[in-house]
């Protein structure tokens, strides 16, 4: 059993957008990234004490893992933690597609073990969950979690792992002011009751809650996130204005407040980091305290916005 050694940070560093770092410098997020720029991000994160990096094979189909592995070569392996994922929908035809995908991730990341390995989407819990067990026993995977699973699937995965002396050690779902389905479905409560850390991705809704974008200054045209969010920016204005005003009186900014909200709800936010200044925001967010009235007002404005930000790859959490 390795569960006692899983280090849970206040915030996790997301590298989904690092998969955009292809030949065109463009992609899902429209993020023109450079090796030097990302090394600066990593240096600043390291200095600030943020050590857990989250990626996946499907973020740019290997590009995110490759870039992250190259950037982290500047540090000792003991100085950071790696989180990556097995995605059933991308599984190959071999006898053990999960072990094969893990080996590919290890090679790209330049390491011989993964600190936290996830089943990215449930697909078939009975088929894929048992495949984690030999990986845990081998030491190539230190800890395991499930992502985008509903409550019954989390419980089933926990049962399967429990029969082998392991357990689900983390849950990762889309969770933000605009998308609280994991809370409504009882997943956050289940995690609290069972001592399972809950990791929240898309806390800033791909930048839509950053306060940076508006109908006059929309997300980058031609990107998937622009297609998903630009039409709803007018409905988000009251919420982003409130995030900004709460931040202003605390020496912080709108995204810091949205991140602090997730922390206040008991989640570990996974925040995408593509610029060094984003690390400053994470430092500010970690020190912010929101009152119960602040939280209630933000949630009321989010409900009033009446938008649906569920990703095309996500299913409803309530069953």
Fill in the keyword field for this structure.
41% helix; eight-stranded parallel barrel
Present the secondary structure layout:
Blueprint: E1 12-14, H1 35-48, E2 52-54, H2 63-72, E3 81-86, H3 97-109, E4 114-119, H4 125-128, H5 132-138, E5 141-147, H6 151-162, E6 171-174, H7 181-184, H8 187-194, E7 198-201, H9 224-229, H10 233-248, H11 254-264, E8 267-272, H12 276-287, H13 292-305
Parallel strand pairs: 1-2, 1-8, 2-3, 3-4, 4-5, 5-6, 6-7, 7-8
Question: What is the gist of this entry?
Answer:
This protein has 319 residues and is of the alpha/beta class.
Unreliable residue runs: none
Euclidean distance between termini CA atoms: 32 Å
What's the total count of β strands? Answer: 8
The shape is: globular
Secondary-structure element string: EHEHEHEHHEHEHHEHHHEHH
Amount of helix: 40-55%
Radius of gyration from CA coordinates: 19 Å
Provide the spatial order of strands within the biggest beta sheet.
1-2-3-4-5-6-7-8
Largest sheet: 8 strands, parallel, barrel
Query: Which structural category fits the helices and strands?
Result: alpha/beta
- How confident overall, as mean pLDDT? 93
Content of β-strand:
5-15%
Tally of separate helices: 13
């Amino acid at each position: 059993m390795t569960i006692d050694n899983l280090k849970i940070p206040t915030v996790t560093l997301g590298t989904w957008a690092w998969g955009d770092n292809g030949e065109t410098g463009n992609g899902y997020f429209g993020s023109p990234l450079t090796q030097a720029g990302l090394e600066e991000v990593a240096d600043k994160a390291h200095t600030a004490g943020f050590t857990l990096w989250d990626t996946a094979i499907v973020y740019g189909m290997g590009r995110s893992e490759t870039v992250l592995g190259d950037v982290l070569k500047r540090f000792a392996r003991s100085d950071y933690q790696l989180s990556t994922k097995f995605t059933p929908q991308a599984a190959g035809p071999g006898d053990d597609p999960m072990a094969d995908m893990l080996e590919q991730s290890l090679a790209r990341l330049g390491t011989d073990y993964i600190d936290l390995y996830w089943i990215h989407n449930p697909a078939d819990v009975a088929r894929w969950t048992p495949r984690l067990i030999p990986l845990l026993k081998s030491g190539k995977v230190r800890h395991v979690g499930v992502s985008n699973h509903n409550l019954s699937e989390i419980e089933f995965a926990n049962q399967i792992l429990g029969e082998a002396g392991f357990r689900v050690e983390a849950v990762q779902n889309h969770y933000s002011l605009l998308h609280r389905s994991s809370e409504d479905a009882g997943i956050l409560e289940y995690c609290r009751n069972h001592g399972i850390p809950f990791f929240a991705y898309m806390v800033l809704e791909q930048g839509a809650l950053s306060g940076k974008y508006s109908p006059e200054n929309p997300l980058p045209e031609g990107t998937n996130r622009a297609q998903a969010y630009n039409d709803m920016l007018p409905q988000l204005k009251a919420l982003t204005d409130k995030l900004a005003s709460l931040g202003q009186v605390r020496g912080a900014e709108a995204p810091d407040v949205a991140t602090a909200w997730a922390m206040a709800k008991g989640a570990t936010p996974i925040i995408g980091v593509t610029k060094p200044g984003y690390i400053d925001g994470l430092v500010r967010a970690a020190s912010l305290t929101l009152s119960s009235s602040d939280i209630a007002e933000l949630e009321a404005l989010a409900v009033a916005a009446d938008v649906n930000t569920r990703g095309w790859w996500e299913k409803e959490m309530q069953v």
